[in-house]
Amino acid sequence: MRTPLLAALAALILLGACGAVRESRLNPFNWFGRSEVREPTLAPEQGYGPAVFDNRALVDQVTLLEIERIPGGAILRAAGLPPTQGWWDAELVAEEDADGAAPAPGVLAFRFVVAAPRSPQPASTPVSREVTVATYLSDIRLRDIRQIIVRGGRNERVIRR
């Protein structure tokens, strides 16, 4: 009867010593560190690569640049001539620096880009090659703008207020 009592007393002393000595390896509460909060993410550890690469080329020549006032803003329309027929996916892409700011105060600049044809195309006439693109500009975006530039491969067109 004394042996179980002595075993229980020894276990109590041993466990009490583990609680008093926090650095003990025998203390089961010290086997793992404290928990930490982590937000689950699918992002790669090195971060994402550069923004999506746009492999469209500048249109060869910008032939027309117009702005039409509408309620709440304006529509900027440009026409351009690629070197051959078949160019597609045209867009006016705003030129901005790394911070998203305009290239110069009071200037709004666009690149007129088009995607190359998937197969060789004939040069044909300028009328059949012409590509037209437009974009909406709100009054808020136009508030401080005094000049709009649309750039092509061999030229650029400018509209001023």
Q: How many helix segments? A: 3
Spatial separation of the terminal alpha carbons: 105 Å
Uncertain spans, ≥5 residues at pLDDT below 50?
A: none
Radius of gyration: 34 Å
Query: How many strands, which pairing sense, and closed or not: the largest β-sheet?
Result: 5 strands, mixed
- Strand proportion: 25-35%
Summed over residues and divided by their number, the pLDDT gives a mean of 84
Assign the structural class, choosing from mainly alpha, mainly beta, alpha/beta, alpha+beta, or little secondary structure: alpha+beta
Question: Secondary-structure element sequence?
Answer: HEEEEEHEHEE
Tally the beta strands: 8
Strands, helices and their partners?
Elements: H1 2-20, E1 57-58, E2 61-70, E3 73-81, E4 88-94, E5 107-115, H2 126-129, E6 131-138, H3 139-142, E7 147-151, E8 156-160
Parallel strand pairs: 5-7
Antiparallel strand pairs: 1-5, 2-3, 3-6, 4-5, 7-8
Structural description of this entry:
The protein is α+β, with helices and mostly antiparallel strands and 161 residues long. The protein has two domains: 1-33; 57-160. 17% of the residues lie in helices and 34% in strands. The chain has three helices and eight strands; from the N terminus they run αβββββαβαββ. It has helices at 2-20, 126-129, 139-142, and strands at 57-58, 61-70, 73-81, 88-94, 107-115, 131-138, 147-151, 156-160. The strands form two sheets. Strands 1, 4, 5, 7 and 8 form a five-stranded mixed sheet that branches. Strand 7 (147-151) and strand 8 (156-160) form a beta hairpin. The longest helix has 19 residues, at 2-20. The radius of gyration is 34 Å and the shape is elongated. The model has no long low-confidence stretch (mean pLDDT 84).
